[in-house]
Amino acid sequence: MKFFPFLRLRIQVAFLFVFHLSAIHADDAIPKWKQTLQSLTTTEKKSLEIYFKTMLEDSEGGFVLFGSKPVCSEGIMHNPKCILEWIGGKRHEKSVNLWEGSLVWQRYFASLNSARLIISFKDHPDSLYPEWRHLIWINPDKLQEVVEKNLILFQYVLGPDVTETTLIDILRDNSKDFLSDYALLGIALGFGTQNSLHYRRIECIARSLNSRELLPLKNRFERLQISDPFKGRYMGFDFEPSFETNPAFNFSTLLQEYQFLCDKQLSSRKMGCEKIPLFSVFNKNDEETDQILKAYETHSSKIQALLESDCFLEKILQEIFE
Questions:
Q1: Distance between CA atoms of 60 and 70, rounded to whole angstroms?
Q2: Which residues of 24-38 are buried (b: 16+ CB within 10 A; e: fewer)?
Q3: Which of 67, 155, 214, 292 has its CA at a distance of 20 to 30 angstroms from the CA of residue 277?
Q4: Does the N-terminal peptide bond of residue 216 adopt cis geometry, omega within 30 degrees of 0?
Q5: What confidence score (pLDDT) does residue 88 get?
Q6: Residue 223 — φ and ψ, nearest 5°?
Q7: Higher model confidence: residue 17 or residue 122?
Q8: CA neighbours closer than 13 Å in the CB half-sphere of residue 318
Q9: How far apart are CA 230 and CA 210, in angstroms?
Q10: DSSP strand E in the chain: where?
Q11: Overall pTM surpassing 0.85 (yes/no)
Q12: DSSP 3-state assignment of 155?
């Protein structure tokens, strides 16, 4: 009987060892993103929740997350003068919400791998839009798909060595600028190849209209034979570098081309539901556009269901990481 206390002690030690081992395994079973979420303060959780809801409700991040849209981009105010001009308004509020949420994401979640979503918050103002820093959401699989289909276009603009993988690496690099070519940008944003090529022409003509006048300083609207929508009011466009463009093939004047494009231009939301991404459609019978619109409509309902779900923050992190 004198050995009984020693035996009981051994059983207690063994029980405690198994208990602690089970606790360790239980911690290991909890995904890293969930452990990270549990470690956040109430304020940090609130900032992150507002950030995600802003990207789903007031941007197109949900379509990127669910895989119908390759990339979406938002601007966060950087220039103090710009901030003062917009302070108190909705655009400023949105910028603050995205800024605060981005800080939480970068501090706690940016180092965790996700196959469904890459988030890049540029560490500098964009060279074309110096008042803004770009926040970019990328669905790597969808971006790889559209770049693969249009690789020749991307190589023509960015260089022949560009591949689907290197482009993703460039976009996710916080020190690199976002795409600036209008056609490539439209393709990456999920607007379709033909729609992006057509809209690029409108952007080029608009850029020519909005640039500095050239000697002999003939009014730019007269020079391009396009009516002045600003009716002679000074809009500050002369700060833009001078830029000239010629009519595209089959058009004799820019006015003719501009009117053709504007007459042909349709809103994506008039061809689908109101809650899909807004972009210009130039051919109602384009098969690629039809597929894009159907995918957006399908995912629109999934985004709404996610927004209305209980434990929204946990659910969206689960979508991102699992």
A1: 10
A2: eeeeeeeeebeebbe
A3: 155
A4: yes
A5: 81
A6: -60, -40
A7: 122
A8: 9
A9: 11
A10: 71-77, 118-121, 132-138, 266-267, 280-281
A11: no
A12: helix
